Amino acid sequence: MFRPGPIRAPMLAVIAAVSACGCQGPRATRERPVDALVAALHDAGLEHEHPFELDEARAALVRRTIGTFGTPEERLTRVIASLNGDTGQGFVYQRNTTRTAQQTFDSRSGDCMTYAALAVAMSRSLGVPTYFVYVKDLPVYYDDGEWLFSATHMAIGLGSGPHSLVIDFTGNGNGLSSSVYQRVDDATAAALFFNNRAAERLVAGDVRGAETLLRRVIDFAPDVRESWANLGAVLNRQGRYHDTLVLTRQSLAKFPDYQPLWSNAVRAARAGGDEALAHLLETRAAEIAEGDPWFHFVRGVNAFQAGDFARAIASLERAASGMDDGSLVRAWLVRAYVVGGQPDRGLELYAKLRREFPGDRNLDALARDVPILAGAEPVDAPKTAEADHRFMKKLRKKR
Q1: Are 212 and 240 in contact (CB under 8 A)?
Q2: What span, in angstroms and rounded, lies between the C-alpha atoms of 60 and 54?
Q3: CA–CA separation, 303 vs 264, rounded Å?
Q4: What pLDDT score was predicted for residue 26?
Q5: Which of 16, 120, 138, 227 is deepest in the core (most CB within 10 A)?
Q6: Phi-psi bin for 239: left (phi > 0), alpha (psi -120 to 50), beta?
Q7: What's the pLDDT tens digit per position in 310-348?
Q8: C-alpha pair distances (Å), 399 with each of 184, 193, 370, 393
Q9: What values do phi and psi take at 205, rounded to 5?
């Protein structure tokens, strides 16, 4: 098995001899070059850089320091080793931060999409024919107050058939089944890359920029479902609920099983005052994908807002069990516990979240909304059993 040098958390899962899907999307890269998308985004004043290319100076540095000798697998091994560094922490994982290969060459930091972009750019500069791999069963979610947006987990691959190789940079060190990997062309990867960038714009407050970017991406690659879902979230964010429902009808015709689309529609119908439609959509969504954590999160929030706290707790617990990377879902679960008659469970979870996410704005908002959580011990308190006991005692006194 191919092992690229020492690795530490965040982990790099390397899976050899996988049966990765060889499909390339509905249209080949040559029919929709990435340069065309970059040019369109540049004209709109949004993006200016090819996501997967290095300039000649940096490419030459890669060739000089890593070398073009050896088999493609050996060259890729050296690329990964150079990214990881001697300690395995040469690349610093930054959640919800997607950068181009050019931007990342010097900083060596970003999310899994960023890592894949740089690894592909570096390996291709050595003549290694790497490609992008879409990890379709591992969604990534952005937290932004009461909103969730979908991003994409990407890996890189080399070869085909039973001897193909997938290198997957993850934040938790867990290897994934080869069944979740799907090879995609550069155009699809670029659409997913800029979908991530749009979500970052939205979280930063650039709602108009996010909408424009997503519409350009959808025009370029209408087969990428994440962009449709995020555009629906953008429209909801602006209070354009009718537009969301129109968009949802279009997107569900293409992706009837993709739960974020249903969640956007439920939220739009309810916020627009059509409770009957919201209930119909929610029922239909439940029939399609009962096990989707995104759906259970939205259903839990809706139940909380309707005062059905038992249902809210049940739904949010199911969501948290499948979508625990971040504070948003569990912050809502704290609310449901406290208001729904289980304050001790809420206090215990809140204490854990405060330690895990110091300074998190979702938790700050939670403390403002739920009075018994105010006055918590400083988030940089020692993580000891005694500190936990003091923290819980202080919280209980607030009750």
Answers
A1: no
A2: 9
A3: 16
A4: 36
A5: 227
A6: left
A7: 999 998 998 888 765 567 788 889 999 999 999 889 889
A8: 54, 46, 11, 10
A9: 100, 0
Tokens of 270: 């309810």
pLDDT tens-digit readout, 339-395: 999 988 988 999 888 888 887 777 887 888 888 886 544 444 444 445 444 544 444
Highest mean pLDDT among 96-100, 137-141, 164-168, 192-196: 192-196
Give the number of other Cβ atoms within 10 Å of residue 285's Cβ: 23
310 touches 299 (CB < 8 A): no
Residue for token digits 């085909």? 160
Distances (CA, A) of 47 to 97, 108, 356: 15, 20, 34
Among 258, 259, 196, residue whose Cα is nearest residue 223: 258
Which residues, including other chains, have CB under 8 Å from residue 397's CB and lie 6 or more apart? Answer: none
Judging by beta carbons within 10 Å of its beta carbon (0-12, 13-18, 19+), is residue 114 exposed, middle or buried? Answer: buried
Q: Which amino acid is at 13?
A: A
Q: Sign of torsion, CA 116 117 120 126?
A: negative
Domains of the chain: 1-197 (3.10.620), 320-399 (no CATH)
